[in-house]
Amino acid sequence: MRTKFSSRLLAASSVLALGMTATACGGAKTGDTATSESCVDTSGDTIKIGFLNSLSGTMAISETTVFKSLSMAAEEINADGGVLGKKLEIVSEDGQSEPTVFAEKATKLIQDDCVAAVFGGWTSSSRKAMLPVFEGNDALLFYPVQYEGLESSHNIFYTGATTNQQIIPALDFLKQEKKIESIFLVGSDYVFPRTANKIIKQYAAANGIEVLGEEYQPLGSTDFGTVVDKVKAAGADAVFNTLNGDSNVAFFKEYKGKGLTASAMPVLSVSIAEEEVPGVGVGNLEGQYTAWNYYQTIDSPANQKFVTDFKAANGAKAVTSDPMEAAYTSLHLWKGMVEKADSFEVEDVIDASDGVTYDAPEGTVEVDGENHHIAKTALIGQVNSEGLIDTVWSSDKPIEPDPYLKSYDWWKN
Amino acid sequence: MDALLAQVFTGISAGAVLLLIALGLTLTFGQMGVINMAHGEFIMAGAYTAYVVSTIVASTELSLLIALPVGFVIGGLLGLALEASVLRWMYARPLDTLLVTYGVGLILQQVARDIFGAPAKEVPAPGWLDGSIPILGYDFPLTRLFIIVLAGLCVAALLAVLRFTALGRQIRATVGNRDLAETIGISTRRTDRATFFIGSGLAGVAGVALTLLGSTGPNLGTSYIVQAFLVVVVGGIGHLKGTIVAALGIGLLQAFLAHALTGSVAQVIVFLAIVAFLQLRPQGILSVRTRSLA
């Protein structure tokens, strides 16, 4: 494909007009406006994009669903005529739940496959591993998962929530609606819960909420006997849960087994979405709270279409969740940016990003061109008896992303 | 006092879980010297057995009790298949066994993912295990109590088989001295297969029981396999009583440390304690001479 490329180049004068780095991989730069050695082929009637999700390993349970919703978004866009008249050609790679593999595959997608943008990643460690790859190659990554904030890369767009769109609204909810005076923190022992709890403790100190305990279990731990004993003994008004993955199952089974209930001591979780509820067991979760920016139950035409289409493609039992929706939205946002820029060139796309909006299933979202996050509405949900999550509280309007929490005077990093 | 008592109970129930997952390994690793990394996947197979049984048997009250023997047979058959197809050629090559069984484990994980899908499955607990009972003022979850009782029954059954049955005597004879056992007419091949069947079957039982505590997913086994080996090594390779002492000891140590410190720190200290202990006593708490690795 790369040898054919130079002959097509002459014909594709429009491409040159856009100031694309019109070279083959490793070839010399042509055109003064080129800012990197991008080898993206824009001469044909297709454009390549990369999906990088863990389709094997421990994260496959979550990331496979993101891959499916990304694929659905791509099909939609293609059925609708593509982006700038070019159909999307998907190059999919498996991150294998290993950060180093994410970095390798990202390099391959950028340098060998010459994709215009990459969509994927889930764990913070996978994102941190990919960050230097995207910055070094001046390429684009769309990252679809809520995370611990305190990051804003020139080459990454974050379409999941940052902390001020998920954790802080969750605390506002607990303080204003549940009138809590004390809280207990339970989390898996890695970067997201540690950072989240740092924020929670400073929020609590500034708002007169007493933190009665802070417990971490190793990732994947299923031994919650001692932790739940401590939670029960402390008797806090609520529990803030940043556990990840299988640990949630063991935690909630132990919680229920020791006689703790959602009405007496509610647990607010930030990593349990529709997809995880059946694994934990509806009976163990009913009545407990979650904090996200999207639920399958959202009543809007955009969401009805999203849910119906997803079920049509993946079976009636398939559920939709926040990270899936954020991934789906990320592809549409990239399309919006490219069309606004009238270019696939990375720097043009980034320059055009500010103010790009999309009527996503979660509601209208808008890209912040400065910090590369998007404005999202925070929703507190409650698990119902069918295993879906009903919205019980909302921030009413989209919250501007503030990954470094600059607008919160109680925050000291 | 309450906190102390709570940690004793929590420690015992954690120890019972360790005992259940390690019990099968005391036979296959301890007695036969086979490093079976797929033991964790036999546990996973047991957990999925519980899931499948719960979808077939309408009554959630009975499905767990039905799943226990079925899980034993499924685990045992997987063990037999592994023994007959691969391990029988590798008894003298422990390191190869380690790699091969690790590979088999990965294959089994992928098979589970293909059959049941990547998301974890929920196995509904029977109603009679719902809630807790107060023991000395401590609300003891019935599921935990059930696991302690089950672990006790498994140990008793295994001891009874080893001590009072012809098969048990053959196993002990083969472990003690394979050549001598053969000269008196014991079919050591048959004994090997039977031992592996029982050991793997116990992994299946452990898997069924673990559905009460955690999630049932393809990676279930990986989170337990290291702990299972630790318990067997600390207990003393090839010694059932040592395994019991080690499981309860590690469970209690973990519970008290996790109470005094945090879960993560407790795990590190437990590992350090085990390393230090094995420096002082490489043969474990108890030991017998076997044809195993050591």
Automatic annotation (TrEMBL), chain A:
Pfam families: Peripla_BP_5. Keywords: Signal. The keyword Iron does not apply. Residues 1-24 form the signal peptide. The keyword Glycoprotein does not apply. InterPro entries: ABC_urea-bd_UrtA (IPR017777), Peripla_BP_I (IPR028082). NCBIfam families: urea_ABC_UrtA. This is Urea transport system substrate-binding protein.
UniProtKB/TrEMBL annotation, chain B:
It is a multi-pass membrane protein. One of its GO terms (biological process) is amino acid transport. The keyword Cell membrane applies. One of its GO terms (cellular component) is plasma membrane. NCBIfam families: urea_trans_UrtB. Belongs to the binding-protein-dependent transport system permease family. LivHM subfamily. Keywords: Amino-acid transport, Cell membrane, Membrane, Transmembrane, Transmembrane helix, Transport. This is Urea transport system permease protein. Pfam families: BPD_transp_2 (PF02653). CDD domains: TM_PBP1_LivH_like. The keyword Transmembrane applies. It comes from Nocardioides albus. One of its GO terms (molecular function) is transmembrane transporter activity. It is found in: Cell membrane. The chain crosses the membrane at residues 6-30, 42-58, 64-82, 142-162, 194-213, 225-253, 260-280. Its main location: membrane. It comes from the Bacteria.
